[in-house]
Amino acid sequence: MNHKSIAIDGPAGAGKSTLARKLAEKLGFLYVDTGAIYRTVAVKVLWEKADPADPAQVIPLLEGLEIHIGYDSDGVQRMYLEGEDVSAAIRKHKVSGVASQVSAIPEVRAFLLDFQRKLARESNVVMDGRDIGTVVLPQADVKIFLTAAPEARAKRRLLELEQRGEAADFDAILRDIKDRDWQDEHRAIAPLKQAADAVLLDTTHLDLGQSMSQLLFLVKEKIK
Ligand code: DC
Fold it and tell me: What's the pLDDT score for residue 59?
């Protein structure tokens, strides 16, 4: 049986994971947050105290690397590294930058490509990331490129951190977002970019509810 797949790509902080998760829930599809997989590789790099900028130190870690995805009964994705639940650890600020660095290494991307494609072969998926529509699932039934102005994304991130009781500074967050955008857009392999056949959804002036309605509208147009 051919499974359906929906690819949602875009920069950090555009609301991809929240929207993709809700969409998957509505459709009864599996939600796959591919950034979480790159983050799990980053945790391994940090565990081993390897230099994420040095492929010669990162590539050997891929051999025998044990990464698993699990799902709670409510569909929340959990990541396991060598059997350990690292779902909280991957959200640490330090991991974001390292994930972006290791994701620029071709061997890391090749390693994770099969992993991601296998998930889409086995289930109907809503997959979010940077290169899902362009590289991982070029045949996806629906492709959405979800974006928002860096300032809007920084504001959302600030609120999120404040709600979690973490200290945060708007200018630092904005700088960080712009740095990560630059790194993700300028890497040589599978850079962040809109697929030619993806629909652009800009959420700069939309709240979560409005973004969700638009997303559902776009998806329902393509998947009847
Ligand atoms: O979506 P995120 O912030 O959790 O992703 C973490 C990093 O992983 C991001 O900086 C870029 C990388 N990434 C990628 O290169 N390709 C993907 N499909 C998903 C994430």
Answer: 97
Report helix angle 34-47 to 93-102, nearest 10.
Answer: 100
The residue assigned the tokens 């590294």 is 81
Q: What pLDDT was estimated at residue 180?
A: 87
The pTM for the full model equals: 0.91
| Residue closest to 129 by CA, chosen among 142, 146, 114, 154 | 146
| Among the listed residues 10, 33, 34, 11, the one whose alpha carbon sits nearest the alpha carbon of residue 22 | 33
Provide the pLDDT for residue 103: 93
Ligand 1 atom having least distance to the Cα of 34: 19
CA atoms within 13 A on the CB side of 87: 11
Ligand 1: residues with CB < 6 A are 12, 34-35, 38-39, 96, 99-100, 103, 129-132, 180, 184
Point out the residues of the chain with pLDDT beneath 70.
Answer: 1
Please state, as a whole number, how many other Cβ atoms lie within 10 Å of the Cβ of residue 82.
Answer: 14
